[in-house]
What we know:
Layout lengths: L1 H23 L3 H21 L2 H25 L5 H9 L1
Amino acid sequence: KVEGELQKICNTILGLLDSNLIVKASSGESKVFYQKMKADYYRYIAEFTTDQKKTNAANSAEAAYADAASVAEKDLAVTHPIRLGLALNY
Length: 90
């Protein structure tokens, strides 16, 4: 039951990130922030699921972290707090 509720909440947030927030982000800072958030939520899903769902969530988290890192390297200073937070999670 708890996993079902967590999955629903994570899916809602991931839907908002993909459909609204990431596509409308205009600055590098906001793009990195939202991509990192997306990766974090996929990582949360990977922590409570098993088998193929776990693998899919982990792969999605890796891809989102890589996207965030790519933008961060171009647009954010090495000492930027969001870039540092990304480095800690990636």
